[in-house]
């Protein structure tokens, strides 16, 4: 049997905070209990917001926590051609279509929300004729490409995946995936040839990841990942969803809300052991 492989995959679009420390320590802790290895992956597909200095800070913060990882580290911005190839496979199956809608248009016509609370895409461009699609593409209209989720699910049939919890050593439980609640998700964005959903699935397979540890805020996204794995003929790892670290407002810590960074805590005199105690690891 192959050795378990896990991964911690932060985005270098800001400084790591205690929530990231919880996720990293949960991943390395799970790897140790399984007798496996934790890999570090840099998910920097958002080239506008991700910065080299944040990547370097990730290395420094994790080393300060006493964590180590095999080299080389997979960097997603170096793999756009690989993600484009995966998208083209879906396009060849007639499962990917161009969408020209703006966020405002989607919000105006949406009749529901996805599991993240965003307006659910109403499928407007799925009904465009081929002639209109070609005309708008040739005209250079801003475009992103969406998965025809309903048609994809007709191809795959019922989908299941295995969830391990509350600890990584518990017996796996079978769960049914429900990709339909996400609607037609974007797999290639307007500015880059991929999306989080597509790149994470491709890279988990490329790195032979056997167990994915992720926060409960990403639990619902697993529905789409399992669907893409089936469509692309990729293995489905075991999934383990760890608790989230909440701030005083009851919401999860986030870079966008200016949650205090690990570097700031270190400058204030915190030790790595202080961080471990604060996050329960």
Q: What this model shows, in words?
A:
With 281 residues, this protein is of the alpha/beta class. It has ten helices and ten strands. The chain has helices at 18-34, 52-64, 80-92, 103-109, 130-139, 149-156, 196-206, 222-232, 262-267, 272-279, and strands at 5-8, 37-42, 74-75, 96-99, 144-147, 160-163, 173-176, 186-188, 211-215, 238-242. α1 (18-34) packs across α10 (272-279) and α7 crosses α8.
Element order: H for helix, E for strand: EHEHEHEHHEHEEEHEHEHH
How would you sum up the major sheet?
A: 3 strands, parallel
Radius of gyration, rounded?
20 Å
Please tell me the overall pLDDT: 95
* Shape verdict: globular
Strand order of the largest sheet: 1-2-3
Number of helical segments with 4 or more residues: 10
**DSSP E strands, number:** 10
The proportion of strand residues reads 5-15%
Please give a quick description of this structure.
It is built from ten helices and ten strands. By secondary structure, the protein is an alpha/beta fold.
Write a concise keyword list for the protein shown above.
281 residues, alpha/beta, 3-stranded parallel β-sheet, 3-stranded antiparallel β-sheet, 10 helices, 10 strands, 15% strand
List the helices and strands and how they pair.
Blueprint: E1 5-8, H1 18-34, E2 37-42, H2 52-64, E3 74-75, H3 80-92, E4 96-99, H4 103-109, H5 130-139, E5 144-147, H6 149-156, E6 160-163, E7 173-176, E8 186-188, H7 196-206, E9 211-215, H8 222-232, E10 238-242, H9 262-267, H10 272-279
Parallel strand pairs: 1-2, 2-3, 9-10
Antiparallel strand pairs: 4-5, 5-8, 6-7
Helix pairs in contact: 1-10, 7-8
